[in-house]
Design brief:
This protein is mainly α. The protein is built from 16 helices and no strands. It is globular.
Length: 369
């Protein structure tokens, strides 16, 4: 009996799972749940690659040639300083990213539909987990809530649905109260971006709502935080706000000084992923610019940063296209969050933005034919 797999449905499942699998894997932080979730994900990717046999573009070949060379060299030479969890993240989740986005994500409407659907599902999981989690596990959900909140706010700006602004507001409040300080700073920056973008397009409703909300929050912030603290609602951010130490981070200051010293000492760089060894026991620099300059040196580092900047410029010049608006969210979050946390090597923000750039270019070329 011949098995018939509907390519359209398989693409929908693949896109949805790509954006949703991370939140499922975090349920209870139980090993077998993560193992099952990512096993299902790998099987879907394999089925999609085998049964659809989509056209392989030149950029896919180039991307994966560079990807395999960089990560193979870096991991082999610094294996003992890279956690097994990060290696799994690279090859199970990050590695398929470009392929999935460039094949299943080329149709704009399908991509948007699955992205927005996954955002709703992610928030339904992340928000209860975040609120009920111990105060020391805020990092587990911080960036998931941040990204999906921004996606839902974008949907509100496009479709003007009250339900979206309600969900986005709940996500924003959870980020402020329960997530990391980095997630809060980036969320504020993203809201400012949405406000500027709305004003540029002569849409005044969202900026007005934000201004009213910020004024109300600012005027009642201390009372609100004290009320929450007195009623047993505690989090790291609440304590930091109340002690006026929200922006203080002695450990990160020491790390920054060490990174700058390494960069100034060797203008040619130390090699791919060498920052893991040089900064041990810290896992990485927590700043993508430092990461690039430590590993690749001043000259190649500048070239890499220019290439990343070109992606942003291309997206901004095409910001009337909805896919570009989505890609800008990934790009801006990638630039900002990786300046204060996370690693360029383990996160998917720039990879998604690059793949969506190529999709936009491809679709524009098709329209001209």
């Amino acid at each position: 009996m011949k098995i018939v797999i509907n390519q359209d449905k398989l693409e929908n499942i693949l896109l949805f799972l790509y954006f949703f699998i991370g939140s499922v894997a975090k349920i209870g932080n139980i090993f077998w749940v993560k193992a099952l979730a990512y096993s299902v994900w790998i099987i879907i990717v394999f089925l999609y690659a085998v049964y659809t046999r989509k056209k392989i573009y030149v950029d896919l070949v180039v991307f994966y040639f560079v990807f395999i060379c960089i990560y193979s060299y870096g991991i082999i030479n610094n294996y003992e300083f890279i956690s097994t969890q990060h290696i799994y993240a690279i090859f199970i989740y990050l590695f398929p990213t470009y392929y999935v986005m460039r094949t299943a994500g080329t149709e704009e409407l399908k991509f948007e539909r699955m992205l927005f659907l996954s955002a709703y599902c992610n928030m339904a999981i992340y928000i209860p987990l975040c609120v009920s989690a111990p105060s020391n596990s805020y990092m587990d959900y911080a960036y998931g809530i941040l990204l999906n909140t921004c996606i839902i706010i974008l949907k509100y700006l496009e479709e003007n649905k009250v339900s979206d602004i309600v969900i986005g507001s709940i996500g924003g409040i959870c980020a402020i109260l329960y997530c990391s300080r980095g997630a809060v700073v980036v969320l504020v920056a993203m809201i400012l971006y949405f406000c500027v973008s709305s004003l540029w397009n002569k849409k005044y409703k969202f900026p007005t709502l934000v201004i009213i909300g910020l004024i109300a929050l600012w005027c009642n912030m201390e009372k609100l935080l004290l009320f929450m603290s007195n009623n047993g609602i505690e989090s790291r951010n609440i304590n930091k706000f109340l002690s006026s130490s929200f922006f203080e981070s002695l450990g990160r200051s020491v790390l920054n000084e060490k990174c700058i010293g390494l960069i100034l000492k060797n203008p040619w760089g130390y090699g791919i992923l060498s920052n893991r060894k040089l900064l041990y026991p810290e896992p990485y620099p927590h700043n993508w610019v430092y990461e690039i300059f430590i590993d690749y040196g001043h000259y190649l580092g500048v070239i890499i940063i220019l290439l990343i900047s070109i992606i942003g410029i291309y997206l901004i010049t095409n910001n009337k296209i909805k896919t570009a608006k989505i890609a800008i969210i990934f790009y801006l979050i990638g630039i900002s969050i990786q300046m204060i946390s996370n690693s360029l090597y383990y996160t998917n923000y720039f990879t998604v933005a690059l793949a969506l750039c190529m999709n936009i270019r491809q679709n524009k070329l098709k329209c001209r034919e």
